[in-house]
Design goal:
8-stranded parallel barrel; 11 helices; binds ligand PBG; TIM Barrel; globular; alpha/beta; 16% strand; single chain
């Protein structure tokens, strides 16, 4: 007698019955860009179908996110003016904070409103932190700005703040600042394991980043797995409610290791370059867009991510419903 695993693959209903992993729109988060002073949505060349929103078109998307039943929207701001310390990030009328308020007013608690807590969109040098006299990213001076930024985001209405700058101690600092100001319920989604990745290329266009050089002194070396576990442990100890691995597809081993290690939910971010690769291949007819997108998302879930950030969130919700 031979073993027959094929017996369980005979029909769609049978395959569905025994599927170990499922994709659910409730677990998807849509990253969105909002541009200060934009009078109409601006396409992003390297991310077909993704735009820099106006405040009004952003509110429309938030409404669609509620209707689609996805879990959240993650907002990134594109300011008109940048400076050395990223002032636009902390001011009440900075584009990101204004947008958070508009979206939260619209959706209430029907979708989670999340904010990228990082300076790179707001600094004229494009780094994720402030610089010291020698032009290096100053970890501890940056933490003070992050605290202020997170507070501004919580005040504006963010349910979730997401520190993504990979500064040491950022989660603990932000947790203390939020608690001291009465925002004990504001959730911290920590970009715990964030690699210095080539797959962020299209994002830099999306936020019109002015970065010269790279982020290798703060983002992680793609060679390292154990370092991610150290980062994840530190963030959990500092009070992270959710820990994230980024990018997703080239780092599924990291997702799996993090999910096996911690009891908080693990998220993964399918980044701009991952989206762009599928889009470019699909545009040539080299892969089936829908099948490739859904397979990539399912794989990220199978690796152990409970939450997935993806530019496909609304499309996927439609495909799955
Ligand atoms: C930092 C940030 C980046 C992304 C999300 N948050 C850029 C970077 O670290 O260089 C990239 C997301 C993507 O590529 O989709 N604010």
């Amino acid at each position: 007698m031979i073993e027959r695993p094929r017996r369980l693959r005979q029909t769609p209903v049978l395959r569905r019955l025994v599927a170990q992993t499922r994709l659910d729109p409730a677990q998807l988060v849509l990253p969105v860009f909002v541009a200060e002073g934009a009078s109409s949505p601006r396409p992003i060349g390297s991310m077909p179908g993704v735009v820099q929103h106006t405040l009004d078109s952003l509110v429309d998307v938030a409404r669609r996110a509620v209707a689609a039943g996805i879990g959240g929207v993650m907002l990134f701001g594109v300011p008109e003016r940048k400076d050395a310390i990223g002032s636009g990030a902390c001011s009440r009328d900075g584009i990101l904070n204004v947008a958070l308020g508009r979206v939260r007013d619209e959706v209430g608690d029907d979708v989670l409103v999340m904010a990228d807590t990082c300076l790179d969109e707001f600094t004229d040098h494009g780094h994720c932190g402030v610089l010291d006299a020698r032009g290096r990213v100053d970890n501890d001076a940056t933490l003070e700005v992050y605290n202020e930024m997170a507070l501004a985001q919580a005040r504006a209405g963010a349910h979730v703040v997401a520190p993504s700058g990979m500064m040491d101690g950022q989660v603990g600092a932000i947790r203390s600042a939020l608690d001291a100001a009465g925002f004990e319920d504001t959730i911290i989604l920590a970009y715990a394991a964030k690699y210095a990745s080539a797959f962020y290329g299209p994002f830099r266009e999306a936020v019109q980043s002015s970065l010269q050089g790279d982020r290798r002194t703060y983002q992680q070396d793609p060679a390292n797995l154990l370092e991610s576990l150290r980062e994840v442990d530190l963030d959990v100890a500092e009070g992270a409610d959710i820990v994230m691995v980024k990018p997703a597809m080239s780092y599924l081993d990291v997702v799996a290791a993090a999910a096996a290690r911690v009891t908080v939910p693990v998220a993964a971010y399918q980044v701009s370059g991952e989206y762009a690769m599928i889009e470019a291949a699909a545009a040539h007819g080299w892969v089936d867009r829908r099948a490739a997108a859904l397979e990539s998302l399912l794989s990220i879930r199978r690796a152990g991510a409970r939450v997935v950030l993806t530019y496909y969130a609304l499309d996927a919700a439609q495909w799955l419903n």
